[in-house]
Structures are given as C-alpha cells and as structure tokens.
Amino acid sequence: MPPQPADVTTTIRYVLVLLATFVATHLDAQDIVRSAMPWRTLRTQWFEMHYPLDTEAWALDLAPRLDAMHDAVANLVGYAPPGRTTIVIDDPYNVANGKAIPILGAPVVHFWVTPPGPTDQIANHRGWGIKLASHEFAHIAHLSRPARRTQWFWHLLPAQVSPLAVFTPRWALEGYATWIEGKLTGSGRPHGTWRPSLLRELALAGRLPSYGALSTGGGYKGGSLAYLAGSAFWEWLAAQRGDTSMTLVFRRQTARIGRSFDESFRGVYGDPPAVMYARFSAELTAKAFAVDTALRLSGLVPGARLARFTGFVGGPAVSADGKRIALALPGLGASPRVIVAAPDTQLVTKAEQEQLARNLRRDTADVPALRVYPRLTKPIATLTARRGRTFGNPRFADAAGTRVLVDSWSVRRDATQRPDLAIWDVKSGDVRHVTDGAAVQDADPSPDGARAAAVRCSGGVCDLVLVSLASGVVTTLAEGTPTKVFSHPRWSPDGTRLVAGVQDRDGSWRLALVDPATGAQTLVTPADDVNRHSASFDATGTQLVYVSEAGGIPNVETLTLRDGSRTARSRVLGSVYEPAPMPNGDILFLSEYAGGFDLVRVDSTMPVRSAPLGLDAIRLVPAMPRPRERGITLASAAVTTPAVYGLGPRRHRLLAHTAMARDGFVQTGSISSADPANRFTWMLSGMAGTRPAWRGGVASGVWYGSRPHLRGETFWLEQRSGDQRNALSVTAANSQVAGGSIAAELPIAGSSAAQRVSISAFAGSAKLPASDARARLLVSAQYSAGVVTGWRASAGFSTRAAVGRLGDSAFVRGSVGMYLTTHRTRLDARMYRASNGTPWFEQFSAGGFAPPVSDEASLAQRIAMPSLPVGIAQGRALYETRIARPMPWLPVTIYAQSVGTAWQLDRHSAVVGLEQGIDIDYLGLVGLPRLHALAGIARVVRGPLADKGSAYLTLGWRP
Fold first, then answer.
1. Which of 244, 279, 327, 552 would suit a FRET pair with 234, their CA atoms being 20 to 30 Å apart?
2. Lowest mean pLDDT among 223-227, 288-292, 388-392, 440-444
3. Angle at 854 between CA 861 and CA 781, to 5 degrees
4. Residues spanned by CATH 2.120.10.30 within the chain?
C-alpha cells in the first residue's frame, strides 16, 4: 500500500528542514569530529563547551568572555535562546571556520580553532575566538527566535528549527551575522580592507551580483558575497531606518500572521529587498567611481601587467638570479598546478601567429581577434596534483631555481588534514615529501637550502618553526599563543635574520625581525592600527617589502631597516597580495581584479605620491573600509574547572524512517541517543510495513571514542519475500533471523590511499518456512582499499570472507569487488561465491533494500538493489556490475546496473535509472545518528521483469 499524502508531505518537508538546519558559515567540507581524542568539558552561565585536549589553551582563553559576548549579542538581536548553547571545538582540517546549528531547545555552534592568515577575508579581528563566537552565536540568537505561529508538521520534526532558519535568504543570514561581528568587536569584515576592495572592484567592473546571485554565489569569490555585500546592504538599510529595523523584519517574519521574508522586509523598509538592493548597488557603484576618480587624480601606480589569471592564484616567488618565477594557479576544471616560468610576457604565441597568417591567407577580409591581456611565456615546468595531493605556496630552494619548496596537504589516518612540505625537482619532475602530518606551511627555504622557516598551527596556536629539509625534523623557534599568531616567515639574503608577521590580541598585523638562533623578536613597524604583513627582504637585505593597508587600500610598501622610513611603492584600485622583490629592485605582486588576479611588476623608480587626494573614506563606505572602533567591552567571568568528557551529554531523539520500492513500503520508528563529540551513539528501532518488507526490531550501539570503533547489535527481523507482488517472477522465500553481533572496525585514511579493516561475530538463530528455528553462528572479516591514480581518478578493491554454521550445516562464503573512477564515471564489479552445501538462507540473494541492521556483515548475503524485487537473483554464485556518472546540469546520477547468477545467464537482470543519495556521518553535534537517504527511478531492460519501471525512496538512520 502506498503511503498517504500526509506521510509524503511530512517526509519531504522533514528532509528540507533537516538540511536547512545546517547554517554553515563558508563551510565547504563535510564535518568530522575527532571522536577518538581525549575530550574535556567546561561550563559558563550560558555555554557548555566540549573540546579535544589539544585545543584546551584556546578554549580556556575564550571561555571567560563568552557570557559577556552572549549578553552583547542578545542586546543587538533582541533575543537569545533560553538555557545553555553547546559549543564543540575541534581542529580537523587546520583551517579557520565555524558553523551554527539553530536547533530549538538545543542550539549548537562548531568552532575550528586554526586562526586565519593576514590575507583572509576574516583576518581583521581582535581575537579570533571572540570574533568567531560573535558571528556564530549571532546566528543562534537570530534563528532561534520561535515563530508565534507554527504549522502542525513543524512539531513532528525530531530536531525542531524556527522558520527563520528555513525561509530567510542566505544573504540576510550571513550578512546579519557579519554586521553583528562588526558592531560587537569594532573589527571584523565590516572594518577590514578586503571587503571594500572586492566590492569596489566588482562595482567598477559592472559585476556586482544581482539580488538573486547574492545568496546563491557563483563565480570568483561568489560564495563570500553573502557575507561581504550582505553585511554592507544591512548597514545601508540601518543607516536609513536605524539598527533596530533589522529586528523588526525578523519579528514580522515570526508573527502569528504568516509572512514571507520579502513581505516582512517590505513592511519595514517600504519596498521589496530586490528593489532596495538595486538602489544600494547604484550608490555603491557611485562611491566606487568616486574612489576611482580620487586615486586617478592622485596618480595611480598599478605597475605593468605581466599576465591575467581567472580565480585564485598563489605566489609569486622569484629565483635568486631573477630569471625564474613560480606561481600556484587554479585548476578551472583540471588539476591545480604550480608553474615555473620566465618573468616575460607575450600577447600572441608563435603558434597563434602562424595560425593567424593561415587564416588571413584563406580569407583576406577576416578580422583578427584583439588581444588585450598579455600572458607569461610557456612554463619551463609544471607540477600538477599527484596521488591525491595538491601543491601550493612555491618558494625557490636554490639559487639556480631548479628546486622548489611547496606546501602539500596530507590526509592523516583519522581523516583529518594537515599541511606539509615537499621539494619539487624542476628538472626531473620528482617530488620528495619532507614532512608527514606535521601541520607546517607558509615555508621559506634558507639561503643555504638546508632548512626552512615555517608556521606550524595546532590546536589554535601558530608557532614559528624551523624545518630540516633533509630529515623533516621540526624545531620550535618562537611559540605562539591563542592570541599571538605568526605568519609568512622569510629569510634575509645572508641567512642571519628572519622577518615574520605577528598578530597579537589587539588584532593588528605587525612585522618583526626574528633571530633564527634564539627566536628573539624585534618589532619594526609601528603600533598605529594599520595592518602590515606578507613581508620579504629585498636583494640587499636592507629593506623590507610588504603589504600595507594604510589608507584603507592594501598596497606595496617598503621599509628601510636602517632608519625605519617607509615608502609607498604602488597605488591600485583593488588590493595587492604577496609582493616579491626582484634582484634589480623591481617588485612582483598579485593585483586583484573582479575575476581573479593580475601578475604585476612595478618598476623600482616609479614614484608614488604621499597620499591620495580627496579621498574621504568614511563618506565612501562600503567602497572604503569602515574605521576600526573600540567595540563592546567584554568582561571576564568565572568558568567551571574542565572535566573529563566521558560519554558526554546525551541528546535523545525520536526518529522516523521511510522506505518505499516496487515491493511496498516500510515505516520505522526509533529512539536514539548521541553526544556532541560523536563518541557513543545508540538506537532502538521498530519497523513494520507491507508483507515483503523487513519488519521487526533492532537495538544497536557504536563506540567511536577509540580506534578501532566498536559496534554491538541485537535484532529480530522477518522478511516475507514470498508474499511480494512479483512472486511469479522470483522464488524468494520467507525467513526470520534473530541474534546479536559484535564488531570492530578500523578506517585508515590517507592522501593517496585509504583502507578499512573490520571483523564481526554473530550468534543467534534463523527460521525458514516449514522448519524450526536453527542456531546460527557466523564470523566475518572484511578488507577494502582504494588508491588515487590521477586527478579525479581512483581505483580500489574490497573482499569479505565469512565462515559459519546454520544448524548442522557449515558453510564458507566470500566476495571480492573492484572499482575504477575516472572522468567522473565510476565502474563497479563484484563476484559472490559460497561453498557447496551452503544452506539456502546463507546463499546470496539480490534485490530490495539493504537489511536494516547496523552491522552489515550479519546479513551480508543480502545484496541491496532497490530498483528490483527481493530474490531477483539468488544462489551460491552471483555477479554484480554497475556504471554511474553524475549528470552535468542536474543533481542526479545516471546509472546502469546488472546482477545475475554467474553460470545461468537466463537469471541475468539489468536496469538503467536516475538516482541521488546523501550520507551524513557526523550528526552527533545535533544529537542525531548517521543519515542515509536515497531516491531514484529505474527501468528494467533485461530479465524476468523487462520493460517494467520502478521508483524507490529511503530515508534512514544508523548509529
């Protein structure tokens, strides 16, 4: 019997709302939590904080100011959720990030503690922790405001959210939280130089996003515009109607009278948001042209363009003789790459000239294409991704420019990621990895090539370190703290000094000279609230070349070490990155434009006037930065003594599962318990449905707090396969199975290879038609491995073996499979084989959904194929093949799959179809187990059910 319309509606709404609860702030990768680490817990009046032990210094620095931050945000938003908000701290990917999950009654924020570098958009702050907390808790306070009119189905959700979290456009969510981070701290993106630089460039190029694109992103830095342009838009609206006008919009949106965001917005500001945004864009463009006019009147010094690149670019680096440069370039559909080239340009290559001449000979009236942007000459060498590793931040490691030190991100055994160092031999193309999982990056080789100065970030603390390029040994030179961050170390030409960027609690980036023997530091730039960073020594060692944000626009500046005098070396409309001095005194740097970066060379004799004329920065916000302000004073309060986390606080959820296919449907109800660190999850489930579907009960639990993971399960299940409506086409019989299993599983991740090992034991009974229940014992082992074979290409295999006994019959069975992925297409093939005399219940049977058990080894003889009925192929020997490829413009995968008895082709069945699935493994943050969802349609093209169609849907949970 198909589900009733109310059930379908509830399921669809449930899925949509569940996905909408994950209000991530620029979160690109799926969450992981290092559950196997030792964890600690501490509490304040308004927060419960959980963290792995290696981040404790960062957590203890932040915790005393959290309650004051809570009160300040609540005052700005006009609301805060009752009770404590859970904070989960971790450092899985060594990048700066965070997200908020506004579950009503149990809100959660997730902090990634690694601080941002000076050129990140989020670099402008007075303490990374409090900036991150103010932004993420702003989401919680905003989106936890309950609706005063709630539809009935909202109460059916296992994790309830406010309609604000679902029906508010992304620009309004992220822009509002970004506005609050600026108001509360007096810093943040609204007060930095990177926001106005990008908005100004987009406006001058006529490429500001449309209102619709403001939330959806796309293009160069498109995903960040919800934060940057969104916060600027809210500021513009607040200037007209006051800061409290934003709160009025959200109060209208949660009123008893149901209103959309657009309607709520219009009731406060008079026009729909799209209309107001158009006016804002016009004013922003006018201000951008005012900046343009003032800078041109003062005299632009943009330098000479050598090349234009689309997207993100890293570098440049210059060899000691100035004859070679190195750049990290984006992939744009292919592998990201590092190139070594001569610093020479060309408008047209020789091959293009020859082709142009041939075209003109064939058609003398043809008009050649206009070439506007020069390009670098053909690269001398190119380094692309290798075996799962990409490379960046190139630095020449010898005078001849034949060895290049690069960053290379590695995946550790627990699936966390850390940056490492490698040496690329330009002549041979070989890459030698210097470190492995050391979390060192932003490195610069010493002039003798024996060691490198680098930054090591771990647990939210960034140290200045020295790395032996021969052995990979890492030595701490200067220790960082949660509020003192090092960045961008560079050697002097004689190897006696280093220069590095240093950020302290006030948030300003300053430059320091560092003794490589002792780590002693001497600040050489003033404490004038101007960020100065990305420094290098010039070829003489007497000057520093760096980025200065003086005047609100990042430009190149030099500092003479003898007397401390500073000289501006560029004046651009956008912003500059990574200046690299050349031996003759010229400077290479990256100049940002609306679609990426230009590689620019500025002459050593090019003059820059002292200050631009007629540039009123305050009047020109947001085309110019808003000055940093004092911010709200956050008093410190007492916190509890950190306690051992143990099993952690429990979140209990009532859950519903649904599965529908051509054989009918099954509904499942569950109660689950999980903790924020995802260390231990248990679940009790009961299921019922149409006769061919699985029914029964399952109790299971998984301990992720160690490696390997430990799993235990007990269940009673029945499947009346013989009652399915396709019974004339298949010969599946009814069966019952009950018992319990224990298993240990060890996943081993890696950059170029991954493995998984598991062992499982089951004891129980099985009952077949017209027979009594018989004792069942089973021991299984499984091993799988995969390797990266190229860019977006991989291959792997897996094997499972089991020995067991059902009643008086002993049996052995196994399977082996392989896969190959290339050009976004995946091919799978698998063979199954059981020993002679294997009882019917233990033989392989394909079709239908997977058994609803957590330990799949307990019923591994059941092969899931939801597009076909249970038992479409069965026996002691089966094979299965599948080929699948994502559709280019639709969020679905097209596939073809076949299954059959290895020696009986008449039992072969094949289908083609479209499907889409999602698996989310780490939902303990919100008290939920793992989620698996799959939906598809298929048509049988061969076999007993040829020319018949099917549709299937499953939404299920596993601990």
1. 552
2. 388-392
3. 55
4. 304-362+374-602
- CA atoms of 209 and 207, how far apart (whole Å): 6
Would you state the structure tokens that stand for residue 103, as one six-digit string? Answer: 């579950």
* CATH match of 1-167 with 3.30.2010.30: yes
301 Cβ neighbours under 8 A, 6+ residues apart: 568, 569, 570, 571, 572, 602, 606, 607, 608
Phi/psi of residue 332, nearest 5 degrees: 50, 55
CB 75 within 8 A of CB 499: no
What CA–CA distance (Å, rounded) separates 168 from 171?
A: 8
Q: DSSP letters along 469-537, please?
A: TTT--EEEEE--BTTBEEEEEEE-TTSS-EEEEEE-TT--EEEEEE-TTT--EEE-S--SS--EEEEEE
The whole-angstrom separation of Cα 634 and Cα 122 is: 20
Percentages helix, strand, coil for the chain, rounded to the nearest 5?
20, 40, 40
Cα–Cα distance, 325 to 315 (Å, whole number): 9
Rounded-to-integer distance, Cα 151 and Cα 253, Å: 14
Mean pLDDT in the chain? 91
Look up tokens 């090349």; give the residue: 307
- Band of pLDDT at residue 158, cut at 50, 70 and 90: low
CATH code 3.30.2010.30 region(s) in the chain: 1-167
- Pairwise CA distance, residues 277 & 283, whole Å: 10
Q: How far apart are CA 725 and CA 735, in angstroms?
A: 17
Question: Residue 249 phi/psi, 5° resolution?
Answer: -60, -45
Burial class (CB in 10 A: 0-12, 13-18, 19+), 957: buried
* 482: its two tokens: 């949660």
- Does the 304-362+374-602 domain belong in CATH 2.120.10.30? yes
Which residue do the tokens 């206009």 mark?
370
Distance CA 459, CA 481 (A): 10
194-204 vs 225-241: helix crossing angle, rounded to 10: 90
Beta carbons of 108 and 99 less than 8 angstroms apart = no
Per-residue pLDDT of 461-481, as tens digits, reads 999 999 999 999 999 999 999
Question: What tokens appear for 748 in the block?
Answer: 């081993």
Q: How far apart are CA 859 and CA 813, in angstroms?
A: 12
pLDDT of residue 153: 60
What is the DSSP code (8-state) at residue 68? Answer: H
- Residue 804 Cα distances to 716, 741, 763, 764, 780, angstroms: 19, 13, 10, 11, 9
Single-letter amino acid code for the residue at 771: S
All CATH 2.40.160.50 domain ranges of the chain, comma separated, are 650-958
Which of the pair, 549 or 367, is modelled with greater confidence? 549
Strand partners, 392: 407
Collapsing DSSP states into helix, strand and coil, what is residue 333? coil
The encoded tokens of residue 360 equal: 């003109």
Backbone dihedral region for residue 878 (phi beyond 0: left; psi -120 to 50: alpha; all else: beta): beta
Q: Please state which CATH number belongs to domain 650-958.
A: 2.40.160.50
CB neighbour list of residue 248: distance below 8 Å, 6 or more residues apart: 268
